[in-house]
User: Fold this.
Amino acid sequence: MQIKSQKHTVAYMLDVVLQEQNLKNDAALAREIQVAPPTISKVRNEVQPLGSSLLVKLHELTGKSTKEIKALAGATAQ
Assistant:
């Protein structure tokens, strides 16, 4: 899978995680981090914010710092 958009959004961050973890789709990611697939869909489509528990699960999966994950998602440091 090639990542088309270089714009840092939550969708971009999820695409990076999928590619780096060699996962086929959002459902595979959901299984890997043990969340319901609709959760990933809602976060990807910005219906639901990227919450702290999902951020921690992504950190544990990828080894990236939460700051790196937030940066990929386009979040600004506060």
